[in-house]
Amino acid sequence: MTIARHCFSAPGKAFVAGGYLVLDPENPAFVTALSARIYAITTPSLSLDRTLPTITVLSPQFQGGEWSYSLCRSPTTSFVSLSAVTPSSRNPFVQSAVATVINYLSATGALKTSVASLRITILSDNAYHSQPSDPVPQFNKHQLPIEAVPKTGLGSSAALTTSLVAALLSFYASIDPVASESKKILHNLAQVAHCNAQGKVGSGFDVACAVYGSIVYHRFQPSIISSLPSAPTSSENEPEVSYLLSLKNVIEVDWQVGTDACAIPRRLRLLMGDVTGGSETPAMVQKVLRWRKDGGQSAEAVWTTLGKANEKLIATMIELGEQAVEKPDEYDAFVDGIVNANTSGIRQLGLSRGGRTGQLFAQAVDAIVEIRHNLRIMTSGSGAQIEPVEQTKLLDACSVLPGVLGGVVPGAGGYDAVCLIVAEAAVDDITKHTDGEFKNVKWLELREEATGVREEDMHEIEKFL
Ligand SMILES: Nc1ncnc2c1ncn2[C@@H]1O[C@H](COP(=O)(O)OP(=O)(O)OP(=O)(O)O)[C@@H](O)[C@H]1O
Ligand SMILES: C[C@@](O)(CCOP(=O)(O)O)CC(=O)O
């Protein structure tokens, strides 16, 4: 008998524009999906003779990467409780993904009465975690538990949760999780599971990007998730029934999230520079929100102007993408000309020639300058180090390199990374800069890959198992 194995993968993210403002559902954020992915491979168990089916998630790249849960379904309420077979090692994201999907499927009636056991193997691209400087194999193995391996900030928990939810939906409900009609359910389940595991309701841009790929994101109202009761921990009929009902409602209702596709236009590249440092996002969010609340009209004016600059960058990227398709000659001629020009040179060229394409390039440069200007006002006003002085120097140094349209501190900002938009043909020369202003930068081999969750060809993956 051949075992039907499947593999679903989801990408990491770069949060290019819209940090903080995205917490208001009306504001857009530009989030691009990256070439770094997390893969979840299902292997069904052949033995169906267990009284309690188990779901085992293995993450063989990390020490102790095995989390196993026995499932027990209440015959009266259909609530499924999980008991950890490996209680000493906890993985909140794995546990939450399993509990949320299985209970949702139990609530809808899609979960069969005799549930088969399942093993899911996780593989994650090396880019998610810091690697030693010597060459490492693809899917490198670490000698430490997952929580102890330093992260690079690409949204590993969102990609993990999304690929796991996709694998579980496919196996237990024969749902094709990557079909466009199922993506809403996949997205909502992954958001609920991710928020529960994180213990907070964030804006959800990382999960949305893992599902939909590169997008203009508008968040959901946080009350959608915060209104969901916590999963009952002792077996009592009434809370179990009401939990399942609420879960089903929350997953199936329209969250009105914005997930329109928006990618970096062809022949341009997103270039990420890792800057060794770290930032505490929740503390920064608190400072920014306090500054906005206490800052009166002047803070509100900065918030609004920054929002307009974000919208301008997004609209420009969308229109440039259209130009690249509809006016390929004009577009290509202009892109050929910017490889030797720096940020202000590209702006000049754009204003003096290049037709609509040139105007759009100049507009992109301006939008990035305006975003950075307002982020710096927010930095000094709030005390949150969004674009700290060191990052200002680095971004300014980047903008005098040929082929650089501009760059920002991604996400919440801080000392983690810089994110540049550059001409593809200039990448090799830009990444040669590793001294002086660039001495703390590690140029990453990542690129944008706009696709969200997808099913992989098992033949390609098999060799890594
Ligand atoms: N390959 C993996 N295997 C198992 N668990 C993983 C894997 N990758 C991530 N996780 C889970 O996600 C947790 C990391 O989540 P966390 O939110 O701290 O990081 P992140 O999503 O990468 O953050 P950031 O938003 O800064 O990019 C790990 O401790 C682990 O529980
Ligand atoms: C500040 C914020 O808008 C972005 C945080 O992004 P990151 O964790 O730095 O990738 C918070 C959020 O969107 O949840």
Helix segment count? 14
- Determine the strand fraction and express it as a percent band: 15-25%
> What overall geometry do the principal axes of the alpha carbons give?
globular
Question: How can the largest sheet be summarized?
Answer: 9 strands, mixed
Mean pLDDT: 95
Strand and helix order: EEEEEHEHHHEHHEEHHHHHHEEHEEH
How many structurally independent domains?
A: 2
Going by helix content, strand content and strand pairing, the class is alpha+beta
Ions, cofactors and other bound molecules: adenosine-5'-triphosphate, (3R)-3-hydroxy-3-methyl-5-(phosphonooxy)pentanoic acid
What is the rounded distance between the termini?
Answer: 19 Å
Indicate the radius of gyration in whole angstroms: 23 Å
Number of strands: 13
What CATH architecture of the largest domain do you see?
2-Layer Sandwich
